[in-house]
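Q: Could you write out the predicted structure for this multi-component system? I'm mainly interested in how the pieces pack against one another.
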Amino acid sequence: MTLTATRTATRTRWLQDNGVYVAVVALLLFNALFTANFLTAGNFRTQLVQAAPVLIVALGMALVIGTEGVDLSVGAVMALAAAIIPLYLGAGPLTAILMALTIGLAAGAFNGFLVAKVGIQPIVATLALLVGGRGLALVIADGQLVQLHDPAFLALGTDDLLGIPISVLIAGVLALTVAAVTNRTTFGRQLVAVGGNRKAATLAGLPVDRVLIGVYTICGVLAAVSGVLATSRLAASDPADMGLLMELSAITAVVVGGTPLTGGKVRVLGTVMGVVLMQLVRATLIKHNLPDSLAQMIQAAIIVAAVYVARERR
Amino acid sequence: MPTDTSPGLVIEIAGVTKTFAGVRALHDVDFTLKRGEIHALVGENGAGKSTLIKVLTGIHSPDGGRVTRNGRISTIYQEVNLVPLMSVAANLFLGREPRNRLGLIDRARRDTEAKELLQSYGITADVRSPLGTLAVGEQQMVALARAVEADADVVIMDEPTSSLEPREVETLLEVVRRLHESGIAIIYVSHRLDELYRICDTVTVLRDGVSVHSGPLAELPRIELISLMLGRSVNEIQKHGTTAFGEGHHADTRPVLEALDLTSKPRINNIDVSIRPGEVVGLAGLLGSGRTETAKAIIGALPLDRGTVLVAGKPVPRNVKAATRAGISMLAEDRKTEGIIPNLSVRENIVLAALPRLSRFGVISRARQDRIVDAFVKRLRIKVSSPEQKVAELSGGNQQKVLLARWLCTEPKILLLDEPTRGIDVGAKAEVQALIDELAKEGLAVLLISSELDELLDGADRLIVLRDGEVAGELEGAQLTREHVLTAIAAEVMDDADSHQNSH
């Protein structure tokens, strides 16, 4: 009887840690067997290109969630980045991109300031920018969709490097960087400690405010990167639609990937797999001609399942 | 104390075994509770007390054995399980409120009844104010009153006095006695032997999940009881005494820490503390006298109205980071909420405060970490399966050692210890005390806060006595006696304090 109980506990634990990988492998197998034209380079390419912007945002979100916070403003920051680009594209693509990243940095630092120094709850602090940021983006762009024609800028969204789409390459490099920062640097460990027990971290003399501001700033910059890549792929600046509901996709990927919302733990590879899983689900349903509404319901079921499996995790 | 009960058992368990994830928490435990008796349940941390209580109350079902209950059980935990935002009266009658003719809650009657009832428990606070505004001791008393009024046959009290002042302890013990007289059986879990000997009839000693002794308490000498809990020989304990502190320390002349005029109204006012290298200074005083606040003020975690902190003559900016860098470290009173980071491993908890100096350009050196962690795990004898074990899985005593290690690897000059031995088992307590002694001998300046007078008298070279947030006296050398401390604590509470501190 005890043995069974122990075995169940071990199994639950294993599922908590590895459920997302199992699900990804299962979906891949399913598609390999039952979906026509799934195992083609072209298809993988499409899937990865679609997933890259979500992944970049989700990486920042995972860090924020690791500090027991959340950033609802990522979609609005993507819109801000999109709105900025046409204004500076005349001065060259590099300037335009740098300006977009700067506005992401400013937005993130503002969020961090509200959370760390003013002491506003993350969900409320970033809600302000979720609403206000997109408004500002629309003001900047005068509510217009602007077609972009700069070939160098558009290459970012369409070209390959070493046979891999540039956006996917950037997402991959960023994922490796975030993983290294989380696990191997003082900042990363302090981040996890702040999320695990903020009072104790303060009494341990950790720079809690600096860590929080840093985390939200990173999240803002990553959202801006994602906004730049998505704009380039779209070949148009569209602040009204850019990044809409992105905050929810990112949070979903992070949670499905096994990072607890209670903070104190960041799973980078899990987050990557969370993004891949959600992308695969959508692709599978589309390829089998099921409507988008059904895809949304299945996503909801996956979220509930992920949270259910994780419910005993502290 | 004799038992004059009608025969019959309220609780009987036989051969109970309980295992969690392969770890044996209870093994073949027998336990009987007679109607109307006060039964002490003792054992070190991790001996299985909590598990036994949870089996008794039905929270855990045992893997094997038999549990028989004859009556209603009510448990009062260390942390009060009531609704802090609801009024005292509402909490007291939660779920069985008096009703008026329309079937609605009769608030007036409820409040009057609550007031009368609580007066007999020594609580005079406004019953309409939210429970959360009461002192912890008073909240506990409300919980107790609620349990009794709910017609419990058995009341289980888990460390009920751990956060109470002596005066509150007295009231609580009085209430326990009254319950006993009205025929309610009580299981009393406590680390405080004095209390046990004053009120309990019987005792059951658990060690490593096994019941090693059960019988009348009065016939069991204290030293024997400790030896049963520890599993050490009686001789050895006598040789080492009850606390593990050594004799006085050699102290240099120049203070390394000077805190002047620390004031944060209304909690502390005009407090001066100075400690020399190698000296242990004790902070004595009743609960709420400003001991913890003083330590927090020194490390910069309490906003001050005025005051300066000097380390080696240099002023320290008032924030924790600067204080840590200047060489001040503080072991917080509440391990769970202010100490450990539960999700992280033992290794990461130890190196947390020292991370910047274990890394280069922000990148952590794992090899240096492992060396330091290994050294401290050995030196402090922290019991872990591996340094990668989650700190939340350790016992209280080992968690405390992990926190001590966290501070020691920052190589502090000044160590502020707030209740370093609270809630940890007797064996770990002695080890921690011996360690404090050793650290002082190595030249550390130590500020020791404890509500155990013996610990302060044995451990400190000098005592600062606080009363209502102010310094009420400083004692040194021959003045370090129980009587002097009590005299300093207050004329007005002298009458009460005297009687229980002596019996303490």
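A: Regarding packing and overall arrangement: The first strand of chain B starts at residue 9 and ends at 20.
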